[in-house]
Amino acid sequence: MSESLNNKKLLFLVIPLAFVSCVSVEDTLTDQAMSQAGSNASEIEKVLNSYDGEKKEAAEYLVRGMLGQYSLTGPGLDSIEQLYKKLPQPNGRWQLDSLQLAEGKRYEIMPRNKVMDLKTLSADFLLQNISDFQHVSNLRSWNKNFERKELYETLLPYRIGDEPVTEWRDAYRKALDSISPEIDKATTSVEAARYISKAVGEIRYNIQLNIPHRSALALLDSPVGYCREECDRTLHAMRAFGIPGAIDAILVSPDNGTSHQWTVVLDNVDHIFRMFDNGKYPPTRDSLHYDGRRKGKVYRNMFMPDRDKLAKYRRMHDAPYELMNPRLKDVTAEYFGHNEAKVKVNVKSGTVFLGIFTPQGYKPIDMAIKVKRGIAIFQDIEPDLIYFPIIRNGSEYRTCGNPFLLESNGNVHDFIPDSYRKETVAMKRKMPFWLHLIRGMSSVVGIKTQTGSTPAGPWDDVDSITSVPSHNFYRIPVNLNKKNRYIRLLTSPMHDARIGEVLVSVDSLASQCVPLSLITDTPSEKKNKLVDRDILSWTLIDKDSVDLVFRINSDEYVSSIFIIPQNDDNYVVPGEEYELFYFDRDEWKSLGKKTAEGFDITYDVPANAVLWLRNLTKGKEEQIFICRDGRQLFNADLGVARLELNLNSF
Predict the structure, then answer these.
(1) Is residue 617 part of a domain?
(2) pLDDT for 283-313, tens place per residue?
(3) Does residue 392 sit within a domain?
(4) Contacts of 27 (CB under 8 A, 6+ apart)
(5) How many other C-beta atoms lie within 10 A of the C-beta of residue 70?
(6) Which pLDDT tens digit goes with each residue over 582-617?
(7) Are residues 62 and 199 in the same domain?
(8) Residue-wise DSSP of 184-221
(9) Helix 53-65 and helix 123-139, axial crossing angle in degrees, nearest 10
(10) Distance CA 381, CA 501 (A)
(11) Are 87 and 213 in a shared domain?
(12) What is the number of alpha carbons within 13 Å of residue 269 lying toward its C-beta?
């Protein structure tokens, strides 16, 4: 039985039918919690009987929210944490080496235990959690502006996901004690969250192992992971200091097909959740929804299940667990306002999903609220984004209508290709130029290139990069005979450079490259990465480092020097084979295969078509786009604000 199906069954077993009833919901849920506690019921009862007034209300909320909550534990996960404690490596990298990774992979598949909170947590632990919540919620002046139930949801929870339960609140206050004076002086929750965000900082990126949520204390000891761990760590810190917050997420990114999440702080001034991203976008009162990512649908992780959602989906048998999870609350309207899209589909009834394209198949991110007479109605979706109506097809999904876009004015635009009208599009990429690329591509701005006849010069200036390159192969035209065999790069004194590769070539397309070596006295790892012919490996060149001197190990004439910044290798490359598809009547139709003769590739395409460019030579990352005035427009480019942003980036 699949994990998703198991999760779905568990969901409806542990979240009682009281959620879909209107009669004494709170009392019934409390009784249900007592029943599920089993032999631990006396501990839960002790919690409920320890308070009166607001504290009792908090205790009851906590106990009701414990329904279905559990930790995933096991010796394999414990051993993985021991591996993380060995990081960083002596070279400063937060990645497991090959032996550690092999060991971690063995631990990764070891059995895990599902430990239910109601059956195991002690009264002492829960009472301490409630006492701490009461203390920090009363300590902070900004919390006086909130309803108690808002604070119960955003401050009271002792867990976030399926992590092992630990006593983490005091540990976080001690670890971040240096910012206590600033938080004490803060007058708003957003201001206080800004101090937390800066102090906690970015997680050390590591996705080598697939594991559940890590414990709050483990995240303090070893801050490795991805956006999930960064959000968990930040939210633990916020709650420890009495700052109400939550975690919002997208199930499938329209930009790259992956999931993503971020932290939000509840603003005490206007009761709006403000998103932020440590190290990138600090919490401010004008930060609401734009971080450069397209979202489609946004869900908030909740401690208390949403009974309306459970009532809506409990009879649906073909919906994925992620959409039915009552602890994921749809908050898309908080980001983009309320809207509605009425979409034509080729089914008369049944469940129609809101689909996002990925090269691996369509992924559902929402369900139509109604399907009748060939019309599916979707509510609260991000405008100016390409969606597909999809239905279940066994374990996968297939389209049941044309791709569409909800315009900002509320109109639905259907992408129906017009083969009688053609547009010419010159394509440079098969993926959007996403914001995370700017860091690497812009890092080479300021680099000066010189050539000479000896390792010590004299040097002739041949180029200075003054703007972000429009392609990852940044070409410098030169005319180097056999006497000029040395190249010197002078990095910008203003910022570090992230260089993936330096190439020299006889031609202008990097198809006749000649051997090159780095002779500057730098660590061998850096030497290898700069000239290893792997443009995905890259080297961080410090702004204060010595100049980089290269020797051309050939007598051949050289017409081009290429500087390749850190990038995703999703640009069109000469000599590689591509195939362009357009969507028409529930299938992708080929417009033919071509081998790129330059750093872009041109096709004539049907007007009003959704397009998909595939690299048949290498790579897996691809995304759909449309053509407008001869330009590629990915989802990341659609919408006025995003279009302006991307135009300014080049």
Answers:
(1) yes
(2) 998 765 568 889 999 999 999 988 777 776 6
(3) yes
(4) none
(5) 20
(6) 999 999 999 999 999 999 999 999 999 999 999 999
(7) yes
(8) HH--SHHHHHHHHHHHH---EE--SS---PPPHHHHHH
(9) 120
(10) 41
(11) yes
(12) 9
